[in-house]
Amino acid sequence: MTTRASDLQRALALSALSVIWSGVVGSIATYAALIGGSLSLLGFGADAVIDAAASAALIWRFSAESRRPEQAHRLEQRAERLVGLALVVLALYLGAASIRSLVAGAHSETSALAVAILLASVLVLPIFAIAKHRVAARLGSGALRADSILTAAAALLAAISLGSLAATDVFGLWWADAVAALVVGAILLREGWSSLALSRSPS
């Protein structure tokens, strides 16, 4: 049987791994997207960087609880508010960028670097997301649950980016990239708003 202390250690370990993976991969993906013009790849990169920042906030949150258990609820609310805000900001960015891309008729270009990053993320990120979600459920942590959604969204955006790059190259569907990113943005907005609402609710 697991204890809260052991789950806190798992949450810390998962958050630390996310900071490393998402920070590095997100930065590379953002650079590749700016060169190739892929909106969903840029969304993936931005999501990964935000996920790294959110995970860093969660390291603070779970480390603080380990030292001051009596402040767990207040720390949880602060962390959930930060992660929820990150989801909303990313959703609004994706929505605005998608609409701008559709109006301008912009299309992306494929690169070997982008494909390699996306393939690796499709394989790795779902494992992180599931592990975070399970630990979040045991801890009753809405902040870690929201972070698991950020990680899952990054995996989804990676898969969408691969699909949209293929659709553009093979079928000439230049709009697939922007439409897919717009759908993910709507999902993130809903989840982020929900996290912000929950973070304001009384204990």
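(ticket continues) Second input and output from the same batch:
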Amino acid sequence: MTQLLEPTGGKIERPKDWFYTEGRDAHSFTWILSRERPAHGYETGMRIQPLVGVKKATGKTGRQFQLDFIADKKKDPAVRVLSTCDEREQQLFTRVCLETEEGDDHILYSLFWGSNEMDMAVVTIAGTRKDLWETYAPTFDRMGAFELIDMKRFEK
């Protein structure tokens, strides 16, 4: 089923019977799609968090903010890096990824930054227990093709 990501009008495939929550603060939105109710944490799911004003808040470009995140993960002795992917243009953003094992969890980070000097970064975290990864990896692949912003909604 298709889930709208409000207020941007984006869309993501949400598995039947999965839960959806959204939240926001002054600098970001957060959307969570999870197999369990996310009120007190969840074991299997995806979190999408766009961050606006990254340069103003951190002094870093969106690209540097994301690349520093990856570098920090790679240095962390508690993190086992399984794979990475190179920069790839995707509509209004450039994407890189990092797949890890952290404790009992298998996590795929997809990290985006705005093209054309757009001061925005997007972090998606898809994860579950290591022993469940093979079961849910195809679901995360489908969900990973989400549309963050419905540009038609903002055309005048």
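Agent notes: The longest helix spans residues 62-75. The chain has four helices and ten strands. Closing as not reproducible unless the customer responds.
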